[in-house]
Hints:
Layout: H1 2-20, H2 27-45, H3 55-60, H4 63-75, H5 85-90, H6 94-119, H7 129-136, H8 139-160, H9 167-172, H10 180-189, H11 195-205
Helix pairs in contact: 1-2, 1-6, 4-6, 6-7, 6-8, 6-10, 7-8, 8-10
Amino acid sequence: xxxxxxxxxxxxxxxxxxxxxxxxxxxxxxxxxNGQIAQSIEDFKNRTIYTKLTEEIIxxxxxDNLLQAVFDNLTEKLPEDYNKEFEIVAAWNESRQAIYMIxxxxxxxxxxxxxxxxFNSGGQFYKKLPKALQLVGAIRFADLTQRANGMFEIHNExxxxxxxxxxxxxxxxxxxxxxxxxxxxxYGLYELEDLQQIQVGYxxxxxxxxxxx
Length: 213
């Protein structure tokens, strides 16, 4: 699960690097930006992880950090045996399920597309995700993921024919994969729906769903 958390951070950093390349024209600017990245990683590693969320913590946590705080809290509720991940998550209320599953979806798709999402353990949540996205108000992402699910189910056998457990086989599964075009749609949707802020707004409006009794 730590891999999923770090994937989210790495995706954010790469995005920042891409945006900054147009402005950092001098070595000094680049050095300063690299320093900011290093500090961001250090801050992330040393962040406070709340095993018990309270109303006060949610209220006092900034929008930039709230989603991470809630996700960290949820991962603390998971057993060390991740074979029981689906069972545990399914027992949570719908709000907690939604935030957890959306995070997993984003981390996987932003790292390796829908193909990677369905291939890895996060794919076990695929049928629940359209409803989860609708719940928080991410309607466009919900529609796209519903279409991806349908495509995955139709082409499942073909998509998986190269996935023999090897890295080479997994790489080959991207060739002529019908899900590839949906990855491009997914990345483009961020310009139309701020998925992080949508979730933050949902958490603040339904904070009682995330408070540990």
